Amino acid sequence: xxxxxxxxxxxxxxxxxxxxxxxxxxxxxxxxxxxxxxxxxxx
Amino acid sequence: xxxxxxxxxxxxxxxxxxxxxxxxxxxxxxxxxxxxxxxxxxxxxxxxxxxxxxxxxxxxxxxxxxxxxxxxxxxxxxxxxxxxxxxxxxxxxxxxxxxxxxxxxxxxxxxxxxxxxxxxxxxxxxxxxxxxxxxxxxxxxxxxxxxxxxxxxxxxxxxxxxxxxxxxxxxxxxxxxxxxxxxxxxxxxxxxxxxxxxxxxxxxxxxxxxxxxxxxxxxxxxxxxxxxxxxxxxxxxxxxxxxxxxxxxxxxxxxxxxxxxxxxxxxxxxxxxxxxxxxxxxxxxxxxxxxxxxxxxxxxxxxxxxxxxxxxxxxxxxxxxxxxxxxxxxxxxxxxxxxxxxxxxxxxxxxxxxxxxxxxxxxxxxxx
Lengths: 43, 368
Fold this sequence. Notes:
Radius of gyration of chain B: 25 Å
Largest interface: A-B, 36 and 60 residues
CATH superfamily of the largest domain in chain B: SGNH hydrolase
Shape of chain B: elongated
Oligomer: heterodimer
Order of helices and strands of chain A: H
Distance between the termini of chain A: 62 Å
Number of strands of chain B: 5
Shape of chain A: elongated
Number of helices of chain B: 19
Radius of gyration of chain A: 18 Å
Order of helices and strands of chain B: HHHHEHHEHEHHHHHHHHHEHHEH
CATH architecture of the largest domain in chain B: 3-Layer(aba) Sandwich
Largest sheet of chain B: 5 strands, parallel
Number of helices of chain A: 1
Mean pLDDT of chain A: 92
Structural class of chain B: alpha/beta
Distance between the termini of chain B: 85 Å
Strand content of chain B: 5-15%
CATH topology of the largest domain in chain B: Rossmann fold
Low-confidence stretches of chain B: none
């Protein structure tokens, strides 16, 4: 039972950190390639 | 018995917390596995169809992310619009976006024509003519009706080629869609065509990666609704900003003569291309704050070149057999209707202008 609980914990950690890692790498790519969202500014 | 049950769950919770919070090799491998899996999901499952349907609104970085909206909305029209029906596309930059209330226009047109006309709002601040070509190229297979196209010297007829390569059009993937006609126009303008590898996510990775934090938030909070009118939330310009804006509205005269012919040619190709599919075009002149007009037209040379511009557009519209509408005078705008030099902020003024536009569109529909 303890093993299952630990495995569930590790899975949760992997999902959270994996998602954040993907977003962080994406942000890094955006920074390096000068990608940005164009928000219109009138003046 | 009860103590043993509590202790059992206590051990379970402790083991779960250990697994969830302590670094370990399985957690590290799992993290990498999840990140790679999400990447593969994006590469394999992210398609224009997905963005137009189930993914609609999830890539918007807030209600003012105009280009995410334009992308999703255009893809949605290209997938779902019913072609036999005559509809309207409103297309242009922030000026027309703030000046026309698309839903109100739709209601007025339905009331006047007694037909289920739809008005698609494809307007965005800073939209270029070449991007409009891209949007229209995308929807032309499913859309039939009238495209109301904003026309103005700034960012349209006086725009020089440098904007195509230096500006945001090619460098930043403001729109995430394949448009052969856009690529063709780029080629004509001497700008190297984008090299597509054929994978939607990888081809437009800049569009997507920059919106990943927004996607993460939207997965939790739900898809975002685009807000078409945004100017009423802007802060009024300072005196300096006002002067800069007026100067900007005068600046186009320097590049007008040099660029008008090439840009009229772009319009000519676009109008003919749309006509092949039974889509008619109408030019809608941009509006201006009367207080700004007094300053803009203070110099006789500006008045002269503006009159030349108007005469050029009228001549071109006659040649192409399309209407040219300059409707500001019919809406009785006052300076206080505007937030700055060209953007309406008051709903009443917007409704007046929309009503005038509805009348013109109805007349055009009745002659078709």
